Amino acid sequence: MGLSQDDADRGGDCVEVAAHPAAVHIRDSKVAEGLTVPPTAWDAFLSGTAVQ
Fold it and tell me: Tens digits of per-residue pLDDT, 2-38?
């Protein structure tokens, strides 16, 4: 599964996320190199950024 979030109001900045059972890959669409984290780290990040 992949997710791309594009915000035209911010000059077309885009973050791409590709989830896989063993890893989550995150990158800026304008930068080829990205970050790979375990799914547990991604879940923790999402939990920490959730609006309560």
Answer: 555 554 555 667 888 999 999 999 998 888 899 999 9
36: Cβ contacts below 8 Å, ≥ 6 apart: 23, 24, 25, 26
Q: Using DSSP bridges, classify how beta strands 23-28 and 13-20 pair: parallel, antiparallel or unpaired.
A: antiparallel
DSSP-derived 3-state class of residue 26? strand
Does the pTM of the predicted model rise above 0.70? no
Is residue 34 within 8 A of residue 25, CB to CB? The reply is yes
Helix (H) or strand (E) segment spanning residue 39? helix 39-49
